[in-house]
Here is the input.
Amino acid sequence: MKRVIGYLLVNCYWLGRVRQKHGHSLIQLLTHSLIVILFLACQSDGVFKDHEDIEDGMWYIKNQPAFTFDIKDASQAYNLHYLVRNGVAYPYYNLYLKRYLLDDKNKVVSEALNELILMDEKTGRPLGDGAGDLFDHKIIALKNYKFPKVGKYTFKIQQYMRQDPLPMILSVGVSVEPISPQNKE
Here is the structure.
């Protein structure tokens, strides 16, 4: 956000200067500024974000998506999120996931069984962002986590439901974001 505000202040100064010197219309300059602001606002400050599509929306227990990323600052705290896309016909309101965080030597640094709530338990109304029959969820997996050291880490996810295969889970993933005043969630 600081980049966007800084850009606005600098751009306001240059808008006047360019208009005087080159005669560009104010509309052209404002349009250009808006495009650049939207680009800057959409950029993520995250360390890593990726997902894996689940073939035919049928997630088998043996299919354990793994995501490898680099941590360059071990003194920084991070939030790690599950990214889940499901169809509205998903047969449960929740999703149990077993997650493993492995270091560069494939040693388990952290593991847990998490319950993700995808739909309202009473009404069945889908939670998350979506329209139609697809819904995206970003749910905390590790909050304010400090990695033990700098290096490569792998985040592995296994579905831990009783049904195998599990239908209507279309993709799963992870995002790793440094903690800042904007994302202290």
Q: What stands out?
A: Residues 2-42 form one domain. The longest helix spans residues 2-22. Residues 106 and 145 are 19 Å apart (CA to CA).
